[in-house]
Amino acid sequence: MKVEAILSGKKSGVVTVAPEDTIATVARVLAEHGIGAVVVSDGLDGVAGIITERDIVRALARFGRDTVDHGVAELMTRDVVTATAHDSIDDVSERMTRGKFRHVPVMEGNRLIGMVSIGDVVKHRIESIEAEASAMREYIATA
């Protein structure tokens, strides 16, 4: 299965923030959307970085309450691992596991087209396993 199968079941569009936004803004955006990461926009349609709840927690441990006043550009991950819609879900899952991250922006060329989370991957795998089990039960019942 391909990443496009996950994207087809999600709302279109990706929540982004700007590099000059504050961490307070990011925290508000994450809470409003019920998400764990946002892409930091390069001002076009691409990716300058990514910032996650985990990044914010680590910054809180380092900077304390002053964290909320820091700029996104200071704390974001700049070397972002991305995927394409044509990548296999297994490959993306492997990258997430190996890299110990939970969110992967999906690109089409240099343009951001979606975001896949580990939750999306797990949900898709469960649905696939359930469909396979159902097909096997049906096959056995008719054999």
UniProtKB/TrEMBL annotation:
Alphabetical keyword list = CBS domain
Q: Which InterPro entries match?
A: CBS_dom, CBS_dom_sf, CBSX3_CBS_dom, Diverse_CBS-Domain
Query: CDD domains in the record, alphabetically?
Result: CBS_pair_bac_euk
**Listed SUPFAM superfamilies:** CBS-domain pair
Q: Which residues cross the membrane?
A: none
Looking at the record, the residues that make up the CBS domain are: 10-67, 76-132
Question: Pfam families from the xrefs?
Answer: CBS
Keyword check for Nucleotide-binding: no
Q: What SMART domains does the entry give?
A: CBS
What this protein is called in its record is CBS domain-containing protein
**High-level lineage:** Bacteria, Pseudomonadati, Pseudomonadota, Alphaproteobacteria, Hyphomicrobiales
